[in-house]
Amino acid sequence: MSIPLVPQLLRSHLTELADNDQRLDGRGQYEGRDLELEVDVLANAEGSARVRMGDTIVFAGVKFQLMTPYSDRPNEGGLMCMAEVRPVAGRQHEAGPPSAESIELSRVVDRGIRESGCIDTSDLCIIPGEKAWQVILDLFAVSDDGNLFDAFALAGIAALRNATIPQEKFEVGEDRKLIVSKTPIMCSYQRVGGRFIFDASGREELGGDERIHITLGDDNNVHSLQKGLKGAFTAAEFKELMEEARKKGDELRKMVHALDGGN
Amino acid sequence: MSIPLVPQLLRSHLTELADNDQRLDGRGQYEGRDLELEVDVLANAEGSARVRMGDTIVFAGVKFQLMTPYSDRPNEGGLMCMAEVRPVAGRQHEAGPPSAESIELSRVVDRGIRESGCIDTSDLCIIPGEKAWQVILDLFAVSDDGNLFDAFALAGIAALRNATIPQEKFEVGEDRKLIVSKTPIMCSYQRVGGRFIFDASGREELGGDERIHITLGDDNNVHSLQKGLKGAFTAAEFKELMEEARKKGDELRKMVHALDGGN
Amino acid sequence: MSIPLVPQLLRSHLTELADNDQRLDGRGQYEGRDLELEVDVLANAEGSARVRMGDTIVFAGVKFQLMTPYSDRPNEGGLMCMAEVRPVAGRQHEAGPPSAESIELSRVVDRGIRESGCIDTSDLCIIPGEKAWQVILDLFAVSDDGNLFDAFALAGIAALRNATIPQEKFEVGEDRKLIVSKTPIMCSYQRVGGRFIFDASGREELGGDERIHITLGDDNNVHSLQKGLKGAFTAAEFKELMEEARKKGDELRKMVHALDGGN
Amino acid sequence: MGYGDVQMIDANGIRNDGRKAGDVRPISIELGVVPVADGSCRMKWGSNDVIAAIYGPMEAHPRKIQRQDRAVLDVRYNMAPFSTSDRIRPGFNRRSREISKVTAEALESVVMLELYPRSKIRVEIEIICAEAGTRCVGLTAASIALAHAGIPMTDLVISVASGKINDVVVCDLNKSEDNYGEADLPMGILPNTGELVFLQMDGNLSQEEFQEAWDYNMEAAMVIHEYCVEALKTGRYPQ
Amino acid sequence: MGYGDVQMIDANGIRNDGRKAGDVRPISIELGVVPVADGSCRMKWGSNDVIAAIYGPMEAHPRKIQRQDRAVLDVRYNMAPFSTSDRIRPGFNRRSREISKVTAEALESVVMLELYPRSKIRVEIEIICAEAGTRCVGLTAASIALAHAGIPMTDLVISVASGKINDVVVCDLNKSEDNYGEADLPMGILPNTGELVFLQMDGNLSQEEFQEAWDYNMEAAMVIHEYCVEALKTGRYPQ
Amino acid sequence: MGYGDVQMIDANGIRNDGRKAGDVRPISIELGVVPVADGSCRMKWGSNDVIAAIYGPMEAHPRKIQRQDRAVLDVRYNMAPFSTSDRIRPGFNRRSREISKVTAEALESVVMLELYPRSKIRVEIEIICAEAGTRCVGLTAASIALAHAGIPMTDLVISVASGKINDVVVCDLNKSEDNYGEADLPMGILPNTGELVFLQMDGNLSQEEFQEAWDYNMEAAMVIHEYCVEALKTGRYPQ
Fold first, then answer.
1. Are residues B178 and B163 in contact, defined by beta-carbon separation less than 8 angstroms?
2. Hey, which of A5, A63, A127, A159 has its CA 20 to 30 A from B127?
3. Interface contact A117, partner D, CB < 8 A
C-alpha cells in the first residue's frame, strides 16, 4: 500500500485534479470503479453476495431467526440490517464497540431497503402473534478502499434476492425463496476537490468533504437520503446528483436482476 | 460562569467567611436558595416536576411499566428510582456509564422515598402473581450548581404525587391517581469552612468537605441517612443538623402539599 | 513481599539455577509446594473447597440454579465454570472485565472437568424439556503466587465432590449429593530457565516461558491439554511431562479421594 | 407506514391540528435556561421540548482527540427517559448515535472551528419531551445555543422536516401525522445562502413529491429563522 | 420490611440466637491471610467471612488519577458469586459501587494520605460469605488491613449497625433479623474520638429509637475496638 | 459427545466424505485477497473459508502497550455473523478471546519480534464460513499472511487437528465428524523442526490413541506445508 499523503497536500492535489476534470485513478467524475458482483458465495448463509469495487471488497450474508411478532404488528416478521467494519478491512479501523461510522452505515443501508418496501413483512409471518421470521442481513467489509456505503447496499439487496428461508431446518414447512419484490439502489457522491464525484476511493475519502447518499427504487422514487460529514451543498448541486443517481441506479439494478433473471 | 478559584484559595476564602458566619452568596448558615417547584411540566410523563434552587435546575418524570411480580411478593408492584447527571448539567459532568456519584444520588433518593412507605406496593398489583405496575421515577439534572440531592428528592416526591397511572393505555381499567400517602423530605448539609451549612452551592461543594443527607417522614421519623465524602463529624454536630432538618422538612413538606391540596 | 527482580536479571538467575538443577525455593524440578486442601469451607455455597499451594490460595464454590434444558438436549442439565482473578489476589491484577488470562483459566479448568465425564448431565434433569439443574462452579483467587491453573482445578473438583443439590430450597425433592463419578486432575508445567518445572511460583512465572497444562482422568486418559504463552517445545519434552503428570495425578487424586472416602 | 382509513387531512387541505399544508407548529424559544453553561437555549416546537447547552471552547482532552488546526465539536443528542410515551432506557442507543453524528457534521459546517485550535466545544442536546421532528428541533436549538455562547459561526442552521400523509405533501409533521406518514424529509438549511448542511430522508416520495417537500422546508426555514433572530436579540421568542 | 407474626425476640428480650439487645455476634480476626499483599485481614463476624487486602502505596497510574498533594485510595467492595444464598453474577453492581464509594470516603478520613503524594493505595474487600452487615465487616476489616500494611492512620474505623425488630431496637442484626427488620443504622466510628466517618440508614425509626440505635453502636464499637487492637498485636483474635 | 448408532466410518476405514483415516480435506490458498492490507491470505479448507490480513509493523499506541525490546502482536480471531449454521451475535465472545490468545502466543513463538522494538503488528483472522477446525485454519492462514507481508519468521506454523470418531482415531475432522466426535487434538507445528507452538485438546483419548492422533497431525502438517510453500511462491495453491 502506498503511503498516504499528508491530508493537506492530498487535498491540494485533489483540487488541482478536479480543476482539470481529472481523478487520481483516471476516472471520470461520475464513473464507478471496476465492479464484480457474485451471489451464493457463503455456504453457511441462507443468502449471500460478494461485491468488489476496485480494492473495496465486502460480503453480505442473510440469516433467519424465529421471532415473536411485536404485539402491535402480530402478522409481521422483521428485518434487521447490521454492518460491521472490523479491523481486517483497513489500517484505520479499530477493534471495539460499533463506531458511529458503522452505525450510520447500517442504518442508511437499512432504511434504503426497508423503505423501498421490497420485503413484505407480512409474508414473514408463520403463526400470527406467535411466530414469524426475522431476516438478518449482515454486511461485512473485507477491504475498505472507499465507498463502503454503495458496496454494502449492493451486496445487501443482492444477498436478500439470493436468500432461501430455511423452513425445513426450523420445522415449519418446506424451504422457499425469500420474496424480494423491488431492487432499491444506493448511489453515493462525495465532494472532492470542490465538486461531487461518484464512488470515491479511499484516498478521495481521505481528502474529501461531505457525502450524499441517495437510494432510489425501481420507479425512481426516493426511499432514503443521507448527508454525512462536514460541508454545505446547494440545491443545484443536489439536483444534478439526483439525476446521476437515476441513471446509475438503472444500470446497477439491471446488474442485480441479471443474476436472478429478474426474480 | 465565573472562573472557579483554585481549590486551596477557595477553601481559605470559605473558611474566612465561615469564621464570620457568612457565605459566598450572603445566605445564613441554614438558609436555602430561592426555590421554585412546579408540577405537571412534561407532557409525555405520567407525573412530573421541575425544581429550581438558585442556578440548580432539575426535572423528575414518572413512567409506568407492566411487570411480573417477584415470586416471593406476588401481590406487589415495584418502584425504581434512577438519577442521571448528563453532561448537559455542567462542565464537570462527563458522558459515559453512570458514575459512582450518580449511583449514590439515585440510591439515596430512592431509599428516602421507599422507606417512608409513601407508596403502598400492594396497591400496584393488577393480577396477583401475573401483572403489576412498576413505577419508574427518573431524575434528570439540567443545571448543576450544587445540592442535586435535595433538588432530586423534592422533584421526585412532587412528581410521584402528581402521577396518574395510565391504566387506559395499557387496557387494565380507567386512569387513576397514584396513591402517595406520605411526603418524605431530604435535607442535605455540607461542611464548608469548618461548619455545616444547608443547601451548598456548586462553589461551596467544590471547596467543602463531608455531606450529610437526612430524610424525614411526615411524623419526623428517620427514613434515610447518608454520609458522603471525606471527613469526620461529631455526635453534637449531627444532633444540630437533625434538629434543623426537622424544621426545614416541615417547611418544604408544606410547599409540596400546597401543590396538590394535601392529597 | 520482596521487590521483584528486573525480568531480564530474573531470567538469567533462573537459567543459572536450572543449569544446576535448582529452583528459587529449593524445590526439585517436578516437586510441588506445600499443599493444603479443605472442603466445606463456605457456609453459603452448596459445595466448597479451599486450596493453598505455598502462598497461592484459592476458593471454589458450587451453586445450583434451575434452568430450562436446551431444546436439542431436553434430558440434560448443565455445568458452568467461571474463574475470577480479582485485584485482591495480587498487585498485577486489575479491576475490569474478565481478562484473556482469566477466560483461559476458566475454560481450561472447565474442559478438564467436563470432558472427563465426571458429571452426568442427564442426572441433573428434573422434568425433561422443562426443568433441570445448572451447576455453577465459581473459582476465586485470594492470593496469586503462581500456578492458579492447578489450584483452581484441584479446588474445583474437590468442591464439586463436596456439593449437595439444594432440592428442598427449590421445592423439587429432598437434598441429595451431586454425583461426581471421576476425579480429573490437572498438572501444569512451565519452561523456566530452559527446562520445564512443575507448579511454578509467581516469580518463576514472571521469568518463565511457555506453559503446558495436562488434565488426566482416573484411568490416565487425556481429557484436556493447553499450551499457553510464547515458546516452542519438542515431542520428547512433552512425553516426559505426560509421564510426570500421570505420577503426580495419581498422588493428587488420592488426596481428593481421602476427603470423601472415594465417593 | 400504512395508514388504512385514517384521514389525516380534510377535503379543504386542513390538517388534524388545524394547520394548512405549509404551516409549521407553534414555536417558542428561551435563552439562558442552563445557567451554568456558556450558552443555552430551550426550544418548544409543537409538543417538543428541547434543551441545548454549550460548554467551551475548552481544552480538548484526552490529547489524542485534539486537532492542531481547529476545535473539535463534541455533540450529544439524547432523549430523556420520560420524553416519550414508552420510557426510554438510558444508555447506548444506535439511533441517538447516528443523530449525534449527523448533527455534529451539520454544525461543523458553520462553526468557525479554525479559530480555536486544540480545543473542544461541547454541544449537549436533551430532548425532554418528544413529539415528532426532535432531530430538527435539536439541531436548530443547538445552533441558537452556539450563537448565545458567542461562538463565531458563518450562519445559523435552521432545520425542519416535511413529509407525506394520505398522499399529500405537508410541512412539519406532528406526532399523529408522523405515525401514519409515508415519508419524512428533514433538512438543515443555512438561511443566508439556502445551502444545506443536513439532509436525511426515509419513506417513499416520487421525484415531484420530493421537490414539493424540499420547497416547503425552504420556505419554513425562512420563517423560523426570523423567530431565532428575534430570540437572539431579546432572549426569547415570542416576547 | 413487614414481619407479620414472626417473633424475633422473646418476652425477656432474648433474641433468636440467644443474644441480648446490645450484644454483638461472635467475631474472629486473622492477619496476613493474603500472603502476596502488603497487608491483609480475614474477619469472621457471625457467619460473615470477609477478606481485606492492601496493595501500596504504589505509583498511581494512569497519571490523570494522581493527586499532587496526597495519595488516592482505590477501594473495591465485592461479593463473591458464592457468598450468598442466590448466586451473584460477577460484574457491575450498583449496590457494590455505592458501598465502595462510602467505604473509600470513610477510610480517606483517617488514612494520612498527604504522606504519599502522587501515589495510590488499593483496598480490596471481598465478601466470601455474607450474613448481614457485610459493609460494616468490610470497612472494619479494611481499616485493620491498612494498619497491618503499616499505612499511617489517625485512628481505626470500627463499623457496626443497629436496627429494629418487632419494634425493639437491637444491636448487630443477624440474617433473619435483617430479613424481618424494620430499620438498619450502620455507622463507622473512630474509637479514640467517638467521631463518625461513615453513616447510612434506611427504614423507619422515631427520633427516640434512632438515639437508642446510635448509642448501641457507640458501645459496641468500643468492644470491637479491643478485639482489633489485640489482633494487631498478636496477629489474631481470639488467640 | 455421544454418537449413538451413527456410523461415521465404514468397515474398510473409509469416512463419510470418502477420506481415509489420515487424509486431510481439500485445501486451497490465495494471497493478496485484502488489497489494502500489508499481507493477506484466504484459505479454504473443506468448507472452511478464512481470511487473514496483516497490518504493520506500525507504531504501537497507546504507548503503554509498547515494549522497548520487541514488537507486540495484536491478534484477533473472529467468526463473522453468517459463518455458522446459527447466526453469531457480534461482540464479546469468550471462545474467540481464548483462541485469539493462544493463536497470538503461537505466532509470537516464530515471528522475529525483536527486530521491531516499540511497534505493533496486527493479525486479523476472520472466519467467513466455518466447518470444523477453524482455529487451525486461522493459525495456518495467519502465518502465511505474515510471510506474505514480509515479516521475518523462524518458520511457518502449520496447524491441524486429529480426533476420534466411533473409537477410531482420524485426521482433520469434518463438520459431522466433529459433531459426533469423542476428542479433538489441534496442534500448531513448526515444519522445519517438528516443534509445537500450539496445543489444545478436549475429549477422551487413551495414551495410545493420543499418540496416534499426534502422529497423524505431524504427517499432515508436512503435506500442508508443501501447499503453503507453493502458495507463497506463486500467489495461490493449487495453480
1. yes
2. A127
3. yes
Percent of chain F whose pLDDT exceeds 90: 89
pLDDT (mean) for D46-63: 94
The pLDDT of residue B2 is: 42
Best probe of the C interface among E36, E43, E96, by most C CBs < 10 A, is: E36
Q: Can you list the alpha helix ranges (DSSP code H) found in chain B?
A: 7-19, 100-115, 148-161, 202-206, 235-260
pLDDT in tens, C232-248: 999 999 999 999 999 99
Q: Are D196 and D185 in contact (CB under 8 A)?
A: no
**Residues E190, E157 contacting (CB under 8 angstroms):** yes
Q: What is the mean pLDDT of chain D?
A: 95
Structure confidence at residue E6 as a pLDDT band (50, 70, 90): confident
D62 has pLDDT over 90: no
Average pLDDT over residues B56-72: 96
> What letter represents residue A168's amino acid?
E
Q: Do A227 and D101 touch (CB under 8 A)?
A: no
pLDDT for the residue A261: 64
- Report how far apart, in Å, the C-alpha atoms of C187 and of each of C32, C49, C191, C231, F142 are: 10, 18, 14, 18, 30
Residues of D (38-77) whose Cβ lies below 8 Å from B: 38, 47, 49, 51, 53, 55, 58, 76
| Complex ipTM | 0.95
**Residue type present at position C132:** A
Q: Mean of the per-residue pLDDT values for chain E?
A: 95
Cα–Cα distance between C256 and C116 in angstroms, integer?
16
Q: Sort residue D198 into left (φ over 0), alpha (ψ -120 to 50) or beta.
A: beta
Mutate to test the interface with E, among B221, B224, B233 (most CBs of E within 10 A): B221
Q: Do chains A and F touch (3 or more CB pairs under 8 A)?
A: yes
Mutation test of the interface with chain B: which of D31, D36, D78, choosing the one with the most B Cβ atoms within 10 A?
D36
Q: 0.80 exceeded by the pTM?
A: yes
Interchain proximity E35–C57, CB inside 8 Å: yes
User: How many other CB atoms are found less than 10 A from the CB of residue C16?
Assistant: 11
Whether B and D touch (3+ CB pairs < 8 Å), yes or no: yes
Smallest CA-to-CA distance from C119 within C65, C149, C78 is with C78
CB atoms B229 and E105 under 8 Å: yes
Predicted local confidence at residue E3, as pLDDT: 47
Report d(CA E97, CA A157) in Å as an integer. Answer: 47
CB pair distance less than 8 Å for B140 and D128: yes
Place A180 in a pLDDT band, splitting at 50, 70 and 90: very high
D108 and A CB contact within 8 Å: yes
- Indicate the range of B1-5, C221-225, D225-229, E179-183 predicted with least confidence: B1-5
> Strands A78-84, A131-143: parallel, antiparallel or unpaired by DSSP?
parallel
Distance CA A206, CA A196 (A): 14
Strand boundaries in E89-195, DSSP class E: 119-129, 158-165, 168-171, 183-189
Q: What is the pLDDT of residue D4?
A: 53
Give the model confidence (pLDDT) of B85-122 as tens digits: 999 999 999 999 999 999 999 999 999 999 999 999 99
Question: Is B62 an interface residue toward D (CB < 8 Å)?
Answer: yes
A38 touches chain F (CB under 8 A): no
Question: Alpha-carbon distance E140 to E129, whole Å?
Answer: 16
Element (DSSP H or E) covering residue C213: strand C211-216
E122 strand-pairing partners:
E55, E74
Chains meeting E at 3+ CB pairs closer than 8 A?
B, C
Q: Decide if pLDDT at B5 tops 60.
A: no
Q: With contacts defined as CB-CB under 8 Å, which chain B residues touch D128?
A: 42, 59, 140
Chain D residues near residue B90 by CB distance under 8 angstroms: 36-37
